[in-house]
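User: Hey, quick favor. My workstation is busy. Could you predict this chain's structure for me?
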Amino acid sequence: MTLSRIDLIDFRSFTAGVFVPEPEGTTVITGANGTGKTSVLEAIAYCGSQRSFRGAPRDALIRTGCDRAIVRAEFRNKAVPTMVEAEIVPAGRSRTLVNHKEANGRKALSAAAPWTIFSPEDLALVSGGPSLRRDMLDDALGLTDSEGARAADETERILRQRAALLRQSGGRATADVATTLDVWDQRLADTGKILVTARERLVNALGAFVGPAYAHLAGVEGADVVTHTYVRSWEGELLGALRAQRAEDLRRGVNTIGPHRDDLVLTLDGREARMHASQGEQRCLALALRIGVHQLVVERTGVVPILLLDDVFSELDPARSKALVTQLPAGQCILTTAAPLPAGIEVAGLVDIQHVVGGS
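Assistant: No problem, here it is.
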């Protein structure tokens, strides 16, 4: 899969911008910090996910003073074109069209615009809260597991509906509230089981890739230095756990257990990486997770996601930068930088961000 062209209208700081990368190899976007380089990658990733990889709300993606932003991108898979058009609005319903038909769900978007990103924010995959790790797993399901991706979307919908009911109940377990909760609990239990099973399969499969990638990046012996374990937020069957937790859910007005509260626990040499690893170790582990997902997608689907590199080399020492260069997978790569690149990267194209901003 390759990106042929992307047009940005009122996206972030762009009034109008056009970016045309090289179809093969690495295209480098250069320019000073704060000039929009990362925003180009953010727009590409939005096409395949309908969200910012930086965790920004949708209204932050719209240029100040505008009521909407538009992103249009043409992708190609073995010369077959796919047009993705995203309309982003601050309030109401943003939408994304794939070949002029509205696309809903992780699988449809991921298939149209598959991507993998390495960015300085990836450190939070290890050091931050569980939601980032769950998002990484669910994004990977969108690329590798149709059933799991559908379950992730449906679970989100059910949790929103159940949470709305809990808030509206005012903490009172009336007969109507109890009956409706019975329905949502059964749906959450059924769909959540599918999602969690898919996540656990994914975590097991990643073991063959993440450990070796970390060992190479960190320059250590043994791929078994890394372990990752999926931890559920409940014990036993989810339906029974939801019923046991109902009084607390009603009191607090939130969903206190379920797949949205699970975590991926990462360890290095038997120590939980989030609490005990150094920042350098955490950064290597985050990169290894991204590499592992990318390699798994290629192995399972034969599709090579577009690789987005957001100024990652500025955060790595020379030895780890060199190790990452040798680990970069084949395929189209789009890289941003404000500093010289490490040795070993073959550049297919060089684009100044001012040319993107100017639309030329």
